[in-house]
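Homework help thread (please don't just give me the answer)

Our assignment gives two proteins as sequence + structure token strings and asks us to describe the second one. The first is just a warm-up. Here they are:
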Amino acid sequence: MAEPTAPKVAARGARLLAVLALAPALRLAVIRHAVPPGVATRTGCDACGAPVGLARPWPALGPTARCGRCGARVGPPPGTVELALAAAVGVLVLLGPPAAVLVATAWWLGWAIPLVLVDAAVCRLPDRLTWPAAAGTWLLLGLAALAGAGPAPWLRATVAGVALALFFATTTLLLGRRGFGLGDAKLALGVGALLGWYGWAVPVAGLVLALLLSGAVGVALLAARRVGWRSHLPFGPFLVLGALAALVLL
């Protein structure tokens, strides 16, 4: 097998750096929205109040995730956003979809990363992140349909997204706090649309994998006495991981 030439290696390195350049914006989204419901979005360091933003991203929005004034940790743990971005690139490489579908998948992943980290931190999925994720994915898949894929996969994606969202919303209406949250239903709109593009079995597999993952983690945490029987685990991370597993496996 021929080894990659220097220009190809340089091009791949440039693309990877371009992707990693998104990390500060994603980390800022987590910092802003990882607050309890009803609390205003975070604008700076909790310890000293130093403002955090894209105008002055370092070091608070860098991999070290430290305030430039007091050195306190800001936002998600160091390296987590960058690691998630690298994993997202790996998923896109494994999937290798056509360019139009690749854009839709990349769009969804770009919103899924902060959603997972916010939900893991404060057990909420903000509308400012779930709605753009779902709407953008649906519209970009529509463009993929116009680009040559045809209407069938896009219509299937639309129905799958709505059906998955209704499933989560119904559990909330019927079971209250014992069911899934409405944030999960909004996240499921984008998840269902993306998975539904590939076939009817894929969103079903994604949901089943998400439920199995959450159950396994819940049992492990119970065994370790980290949670109680009435503890609430955020389901958003499991839904995203289940979706990614279904895409890669199927």
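The one we have to describe:
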Amino acid sequence: MSAAAQCPPPRGGGGGGDTTLAALGAHMAPCRDTTPEQLAQLIDAHLGDLRQEQPNWTISSSTVAGRGVFATRDIAAGELIFQERALVTGPTARKGQLSSCICCHETLPQTGFLCRHRCTLPVCETCADSEEHQAECEHFRRWQPKDVDAEQEQVNPLSLRILTAVRVFHLGKEQRHLVDAMQANAERAYRREIIQAAQCFRNFPTTDRVFMDQLFRIVGVLNTNAFEAPCRSGGHETLLRGLFPLTAIMNHECTPNASHYFENGRLAVVRAARDIPKGGEITTTYTKILWSNLTRNIFLKMTKHFACDCARCHDNTENGTYLSALFCREQGCRGLVIPVQTRTLQPDWRCITCENVFPHAKMAKYQDFALNTINNRINSCSVQDMIHFINELCPRFCPSSNYVLIEAKLNVIWRMTRFDHEEYTPEELGHMDRYREEVLAILHKLGAGECTLKKLITGEIQ
């Protein structure tokens, strides 16, 4: 007898109908060869009342990656392109993000935070009986979590990670068609993620091939297309994992002509960062805009499985920003060392002052040292200690242009303007203002235009 046939009746009297795994899987229509025109129809239905009467964009075939979003007319910098609600959201299951209710995202108490219906998901008292939680609760209880009898309450991030995928099965038919129409990388790590999650249950339907194939595909779609978006609830901020199909269809450029931000984790807002001509492809970035060439391309290779070929990636100075730069290690020289080649993940490095060439392995060690040192400080230091570290200690081993040091400066800006509520001295506020101007100058050199990061730094987006 299959796991689906052993399902208990729905609790609470709601949610009638056939909710077996086989029935849910059968409605995931195989529309992966969807044409751009068919995809556009699915997107229109998904946008609903947010679809503009005469949109300034359209979906069409792209030479970059199969299909993309294009301007139907000239679009001015700063102009709204579209808004989109998340098709589905779920927890990121990151460390430090496990103490929020999976439905309302309020902070949970230190004890008694697991669902009282014993699905072992972290959910508040109010949401435990909600219609939103009912179907997923039944799935998890049906699969029998192994730690349901544990004496000490704890959230299992492996099982929590697949919650977003489970929620996809309970979307409407057209919505599920849209998920299945999206691109998904066939990455082995995605299968391992599901296998590891399955091991957290006593009765996971691993023998149901139709269901497992569909689950593998959904996880692939999510890992390829989902965004992490901040959500604030009751003065508490957490990260949500959301699928925004239209936003995800936009192709990547390292300095894109469009920029997006999220409102409370559930609404994506996309605006033009620069003027976009009629017929031009509307692009976004899949990386952080201030990462170095090498860091961006390693990330894209590992997570998106492609190498970027944009103009920025072919310029080893990155428009004179020198985000990759490290100090020369030659005695008596304090010049900047930057990668020579731009199309390899293990380039040679050359000093622009003494012109000595260094192997990548040697420079990678220095970069890792800077990265680890600064990240350790970010995670443990007060704002005052971070300012001292950036101003007094970092210049000894890291040029001010290096992207890791730029991340540290951004950390100070965020903490002083968005998270901390303590009073700062005029001197400390002066340092923050200087960091802000330095970051804005780099964005200007990159040609980032009216990007989201600029608007966050200048307070245009809260």
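TA reply:
I won't write it for you, but here's a hint about the kind of observation we're looking for: The domain at 36-78+244-284 is CATH 2.170.270.10 (Beta-clip-like).
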